[in-house]
Amino acid sequence: MTDMRVPAWGWWLMALGLAGFVAMLAITIRRNRGVRRSLYAWPYTLWMVVFTVLPLILIAYYAFTDKAGSFTLENFANFWDSNRAMKNDLLRQGFDPNALGMGARGTVNVGTLVYSVWMAFLCTVISLVLGYPAAHIMADREFKLGATIVVLFIIPMWMNFLLRTIAWMSLLEDNGLINTLLQGMGLPKLRLMYNSQAVLLGMVYNYLPFMVFPIYNSLSRQDPRLSEAAMDLGADQWTTFRRVTFPISMPGIVSGITMVFMPSVTTFFIPRVLGGGNTEMFGDLIERTFLTADDWNVGSALSLIMMVLILLSLGLLRKVDPEGEGGSLI
User: Fold this and answer.
1) Among 8, 65, 124, 327, whose Cα sits 20 to 30 Å from the Cα of 102?
2) Are 83 and 172 found together in one domain?
3) Nearest 10 degrees: Cα torsion 259, 265, 270, 275
4) Tens of pLDDT, residues 27-56
5) pLDDT at 97 over 80
6) For the whole model, what pTM was predicted?
């Protein structure tokens, strides 16, 4: 089992992190000219400190320490070389990993990260291709069923994420609804489960609304007089879309890309259910490192690497959409 004891310097690090957070809070109160307006934020502030700030500090602590609590970068080296721990064990036992044919760098961790980013990229692109036309149709003021379609997109989100994913098993499994229909028509069964395509389908299904609603939010707030003015000046529908509608919807597009890419690259339940263990994404690797391998240090390093990717995505969102105009769901 992992040694959960934190050395004295670890407690000092957490104390400094909390002190910095309290200092920023004090500056915010001062800018708001008193405590009265800030009192309403105290419940959220307490929640954020306990469940966000402290866990982040603990993850950083475990990522940069070994099991004895000493500072090290070995955890990040283990990410780059998944065979590094095994080779170190062989060296401690007096064996030469190169002589045993185990000197090559293990690429499991890096390969899993690349695969996860690629799957998240495909999910984001497919969601954008499917979601933008849907959002454009729903935002059309002349389309009377737009509000109805919005409700149809929202209703599945009321269902639990796990149940939505498990429901696809009844459709895709060997004796599921799709293969039953194919057999009824005299066609052979298809292997629809336990592959990358099934995982990608589950990801697109679960995260598509997060692409649609930010774009819909941007398009629905567009002033229709802008398109009318462009057409009055001689622009056709394609030119009006390319020069007016699409640029206006860009904040929603960037927000949707960020909101789909981030959960896609960290998902772990969808590959387990629809991939059947034949596919592993970075979220599965982190969970396996924490729970199965019981290695909190390497698992924290993997989590920290994923946080950096997420922060880069958020930085892109802030750069392209600094006002957060496309950020709300409805």
Assistant:
1) 65
2) no
3) 150
4) 766 766 655 555 666 677 777 777 888 888
5) no
6) 0.81
